[in-house]
Design goal:
Elements: H1 22-37, E1 41-43, E2 51-57, E3 62-66, E4 72-76, E5 81-86, H2 88-93, H3 104-111, E6 141-143, E7 146-150, H4 160-163
Parallel strand pairs: 2-6
Antiparallel strand pairs: 1-7, 2-5, 3-4, 6-7
Length: 164
């Protein structure tokens, strides 16, 4: 369970809603609908902490697909959008965990020379972790479709990596 513990004397912040163009508005609507249906977020009418929605382009990449001749071909992934919540102000007021994350170069050194590797994709891994009920209202965000809070841990919270 993820907790959001605030620094002593932290003052709540209510960020204003951002103006979104029609393309981005549709992206946000689809994401909010999906998260509502999955029970990851819920409507909330009032909260001391309100953050704004931000939509950013996803990094492009490549994937391997089969063509009509059953040949594997390298294919560029189409650009898409990622809906994020701007938790900067909440993160400034959050007491930071002191959990040391491993350094990637040290992890790679430990893997060097091994004969077997395993790749695990934690698809929506953060959403597997519940937020403590008393802290859920701190994750409130606003968009043109309403004001919502998370039941599950979203990306963007400063202590999320150490909880994960």
């Amino acid at each position: 369970m993820h907790r959001i513990l605030l620094e002593d004397g932290a003052k709540p912040v209510r960020q204003p809603q951002r103006r979104l163009n029609p393309v981005i508005l549709d992206v946000v609507k689809k994401e909010v609908t999906k998260l509502l249906q999955a029970g990851i977020i819920y409507h909330i009418s009032d909260s001391q902490w309100v953050s704004s929605v931000q939509v950013v382009p996803k990094k492009t990449g490549f994937t391997i697909l089969k063509n009509e001749k059953d040949e594997l071909i390298l294919t560029r992934v189409e650009n898409s959008w990622k809906v994020c919540i701007n938790y900067r102000r909440l993160n400034q007021a959050t007491r930071k965990d002191h959990f040391p994350l491993p350094l990637i170069d040290q992890m790679l050194e430990r893997l060097a020379g091994k004969s077997h590797y395993c790749f695990l994709d934690d698809f929506f891994g953060y959403f597997q972790i519940h937020i403590a009920p008393e802290d859920q209202e701190k994750t409130t965000f606003t968009c043109p479709f309403g004001t919502f809070a998370y039941r599950r841990m979203p990306f963007g919270l400063c202590n999320a990596p150490s909880t994960f």
